[in-house]
Every structure is written in C-alpha cells, then in structure tokens.
Amino acid sequence: MMRHFIFQACSLLFSIFITCCVESVAALYPNGEVIDDVVTTIYTGGEKLKYKISWTGGVKIGELQLEVQRQADDENVFELKAVVKDSGMFHFFYPVNDVFLTRVAGDKRLPVSYEVTQKEGRNYKARRYTEYNQQAGTVRYQKNTKDPVEYTVDGEVHNEFSSFFFTRSMKLERDYPVIVPTFADGKRHEVIVRVGAETRIKKTILGDVNVLPVTPLMGFKGLYDKAGATVIWLTNDECRIPVRIRSRILLGSLTAELLSYSNPHCGDQSEYHKKIPASVEKLPELEMGD
Q1: What CA–CA distance (Å, rounded) separates 204 from 198?
Q2: Which positions make up the signal peptide (predicted)?
Q3: CA 20 → CA 74, 103, 198, 216, 250, distances in Å?
Q4: CA of 96: how far to CAs of 120, 194, 279, in Å?
Q5: Cβ pair 269, 263 in contact under 8 A
Q6: C-alpha to C-alpha distance for 14 and 218, rounded to whole angstroms
Q7: Does 20 have pLDDT greater than 50?
Q8: Measured distance between the N- and C-terminal CA atoms of the chain, rounded to whole angstroms
Q9: Chain-centre distance of CA 233, in angstroms?
Q10: Residue 220: inside a domain, yes or no?
Q11: Cα–Cα distance between 83 and 183 in angstroms, integer?
Q12: Could you count the other beta carbons within 10 Å of the beta carbon of residue 144?
C-alpha cells in the first residue's frame, strides 16, 4: 500500500491526464501546433526546474527535478531528464530515487527512447525501456529482463513525458481544445487539451505571474490511478513555465509547486506580468499554497 501511494505521488508530473474523456470525441478537434519561439526557449538546452510535491494539506512527500539538455552528438536531439526523490518522514517509511530519461528528436520533439529506473523501498528495483520508431509506427517495450513486446500504432505518438513538454510549447487558446497523440498502456490515445481563462498566481518564486490553466483529458491510467481533473498552470509568456500542477487522486490530491527555475534562454518576462489580465477581474487571484 505504501509503495503504491508513494509511486503515485512521485510520478505526478508525468501522469498529467485524467480518466473521463470519450476517445471518439477527440476526432472533433485538431492536433496541437507548437509556437516556434517557445520551442526554441525550452529546447535550446539548459532549462532546469525543481518542484516540491505535497499531499493534501501541504504535507511534503517528495521533490522532483527536471532538466533539458541538447545531445552533443546531434543538435536536434535532446534529453529530458527527471529525478524524483522522497522527502521528510516518507524517507524512513519508503525511500524513493527514480530517474526518467526521454530522448526526443525532430521539429516536433517526438520521443525516440524512454528509460525509467526505479529504486524504491529497501529492495525494489526495476528498469523499463521503450523505443519509438515514429516512421514505422512501432513501439518496443521491455521491463527488466523480460522479453520485449512490440506494439503497432497508427500515427506519431508522444510518451507521458514528451507530451508534457509539447503541451507547454503549443498554441493555447481558451475554448479551442486540441489533440496531443500519446502512447500509454500499450496503445495510442488522443489526449484532449483544454485551456481555461487566463488568471494570476501571486507569490511564486517568479513573483506574481499571469498563467493559463491547462487541463489534459485522457482515458488511460498511465503511471497511477487518478480520481479527478489535473490542472497545470503555465506562465503566459514565451517561457511557459509550469509554476503549479495539481491532480486529484484516490486519496486526496497532489500538488507540485515550483521551487526554482533557471534557463539561460528565457529572457526577463517581468514587464508582461505587471499587466493584470481582464479575466482576473472575474476570477480570484491565487497564491502559492492555495
């Protein structure tokens, strides 16, 4: 029970989908399109993000660090790295040290490979490796030393990690849902991404910022079971920094809040955030921890 709960919590950022959409509805919406300037800002290399992960009531249970690096051998291949560790009292009950590595390539930053190394509890270890052949439409998955399994997919796919970064870089407009095709649970899913009205979060590590609340809707379990909506608050600027992510789970909710951010290619956005959006007049401003 404890292992299952901790893994749910520490995998929050990569399972950003909920379990309520009807897949046939996805055909009504277009595929997401990226904004070139945002892609350049995120993917030039060197972006680092650190999050505090808290359970209901503000109990800190872990930390998550993200990093984007350009691969030295190919200027159009990038590694998305995440390290998840336990925190506080959970270290004594169930230590966690998980590493997620996704290599992406091409203009759409589609995944080429995805490796998960889990070290949890006192003796649990696992390695999961996935290869994506976007041209051939195949996905090859292997866990530990088991025989690999190959799946056929109809069209390009992201994984749970690259889709998060792809969503950050998309054109996001209120009331105009778009699709992000994602491979999970052995099949291709069409994730519907909805955008809410621009609002404002106060007292972040970036100061008071204008944000877009983004809700991806999905009919797969991914890394853990969800019980309700997940919302990602992205700064509404060319850096699209996720300052907060909140997800309902079977036992309460999980929140990831940004502790630190650095990116040599993200310029000063403070002038934009001095302007308070008109929609904020109708919506309450949020504060970190709300």
Answers
A1: 16
A2: 1-26
A3: 39, 29, 24, 10, 14
A4: 4, 32, 41
A5: no
A6: 13
A7: no
A8: 28
A9: 11
A10: yes
A11: 22
A12: 9
- Domain-located, residue 31: yes
Of residues 77, 69, 17, 78, the one with CA closest to residue 45 = 69
Q: Could you tell me if residue 265 is inside a domain?
A: no
For residue 150, tell me if it sits in a domain.
yes
* 108 and 34 Cβ atoms separated by less than 8 Å: yes
Which tokens belong to 12? Answer: 């929050």
> The tokens of 163 are what?
């889709």
Amino acid code (one letter) for 223:
L
Is pTM beyond 0.70? Reply is yes
Q: Which residues pair with 192 in a beta bridge?
A: 179, 217
How far apart, in whole angstroms, are the C-alpha atoms of residue 290 and residue 271? 25
CA triplet 266, 181, 188: central angle to 5 degrees?
A: 140
CA distances from 274 to 85, 235, 240, 277, 278 (A): 35, 13, 16, 9, 13
Residues 231-265 have pLDDT tens digits of: 999 999 999 999 999 887 777 788 999 999 999 99
Q: Which amino acid is it at 85? A: K
Tell how many helices (H) and how many strands (E) occur in the chain. 5, 16
Tell me the HSE value of 191 on the side-chain side, using a 13 A CA sphere.
32
Bin 155: left if φ > 0, else alpha if -120 < ψ < 50, else beta. Answer: left
CA 265 – CA 46 distance, rounded (Å): 8
Interval 135-163: pLDDT, tens: 999 999 999 999 999 999 999 999 988 99
Domain that holds residue 40: 2-259+271-287
